[in-house]
């Protein structure tokens, strides 16, 4: 009913808990992907062409083992715990090397399965994550967007949130729009 009632939604974000009870690492990811696949099958029977997002985030950021995504399941990679002082491509940052490798492993698995193209949900303007003030991440965004493009990511979204009222004017939203449009990269 929901799928038919919202024909404007081409990607459905219907997530359960980040980690099924007792599951860890790729086991949690596999359980979450099985759920996404089941939802995607039902959604497709209601409206062919609709996609369901598999959220790779916190407890489900490890690539699932032994489970392949359906053709109408897309990866939504959300690297919130990454380092924002460095771009994902900065070889001096061990933390980002992990997230770079995670994204590449996920995108390869989804590509090999013939699944929908990958998407990324970034936190370049998350006033909760950056509670002391959101830094200017223009250079980081430029390099990250080039990396995402080269990795085959279809869509990059940015969370804009904070505590209380609207955030003060900041360069990140405008820079994100400009950099997303400019396909030449840094």
Structure description:
The protein has 186 residues and is α/β, with parallel strands linked by helices. The chain is built from five helices and five strands; from the N terminus they run H-E-H-E-E-H-E-H-E-H. It has helices at residues 2-5, 25-46, 94-112, 138-150, 171-181; strands at residues 11-12, 51-56, 73-77, 116-126, 155-161. Helix 4 (138-150) runs parallel beside helix 5. The longest helix has 22 residues, at 25-46. The chain is globular, with a radius of gyration of 17 Å.
Brief account:
The chain has five helices and five strands; from the N terminus they run H-E-H-E-E-H-E-H-E-H. With 186 residues, it is α/β, with parallel strands linked by helices.
Indicate the topology:
Blueprint: H1 2-5, E1 11-12, H2 25-46, E2 51-56, E3 73-77, H3 94-112, E4 116-126, H4 138-150, E5 155-161, H5 171-181
Parallel strand pairs: 1-2, 2-3, 3-4, 4-5
Number of strands: 5
Approximately how much helix is present in the residues? 25-40%
Structural class: alpha/beta
What is the ordering of alpha helices and beta strands?
A: HEHEEHEHEH
Strand content: 15-25%
Low-confidence residue ranges: none
**Physical arrangement of strands within the biggest beta sheet:** 1-2-3-4-5
Number of helices: 5
| Shape category | globular
Distance, first to last CA: 45 Å
Mean of residue pLDDT? 89
- Gyration radius from CA atoms, angstroms: 17 Å
What does the main sheet amount to? 5 strands, parallel
């Amino acid at each position: 009913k929901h799928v038919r009632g919202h024909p404007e939604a081409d990607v459905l974000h219907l997530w359960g808990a980040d980690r099924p009870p007792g599951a860890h690492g790729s086991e949690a990811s596999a359980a979450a992907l099985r759920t996404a696949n089941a939802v995607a099958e039902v959604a497709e029977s209601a409206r062919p062409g609709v996609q369901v997002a598999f959220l790779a985030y916190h407890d489900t950021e490890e690539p699932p083992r032994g489970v392949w995504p359906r053709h109408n399941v897309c990866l939504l990679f959300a690297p919130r715990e990454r380092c924002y002082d460095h771009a994902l491509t900065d070889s001096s940052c061990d933390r980002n090397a992990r997230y770079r490798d995670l994204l590449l492993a996920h995108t390869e698995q989804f590509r090999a399965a013939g699944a929908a193209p990958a998407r990324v949900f970034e936190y370049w303007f998350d006033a909760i994550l950056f509670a002391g003030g959101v830094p200017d991440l223009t250079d980081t965004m430029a390099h990250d967007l080039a990396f995402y493009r080269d990795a085959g990511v279809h869509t990059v979204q940015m969370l804009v949130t904070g505590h209380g009222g609207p955030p003060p004017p900041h360069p990140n939203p405008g820079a994100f729009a400009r950099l997303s449009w400019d396909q030449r990269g840094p």
